[in-house]
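I would like you to sit down with the record closing this message with an eye to the fold:
=====
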Amino acid sequence: MKAAETVSKATCSYDAGKKINGRKRHLVVDTRGLPLMIMVTPADLHDAAAAKQVLFRLRRMHPEITIVWADSAYAGKFVDWAKQHLNLTIKPVSRPARDYERLIQHSETLISWAAITLMTRCLARKGATPSWARKPTQAS
């Protein structure tokens, strides 16, 4: 993500591939968009290095996950590496974005905040009764 001028130079760097100064966000979310893992790094950290770290953590915390849709930067040899070493299927996709947060912690916090908002909206939907609050039905 491209960093605004107000972003600390100590927490962002130059991405030669995209020719921008900024940060990279590495997110793992479930199919509803709720975060399973968040990691923000300076832009000069190679995607494969950060992804290996994120996917190792994901594999340990969520061994049931077998398919991961990932940024197109993770295509190529990384797909084979993930299959061989972690038994994960990587499906690359692309999506552009921009970063305005001054600190890495701000980026991580805003992502968490957005996820909390999604979760509370799901819980507070009108007429929705959480599964734990439903009375069990008796079979006749």
Remarks:
- The longest helix spans residues 104-123.
- The two ends are 58 Å apart (CA to CA).
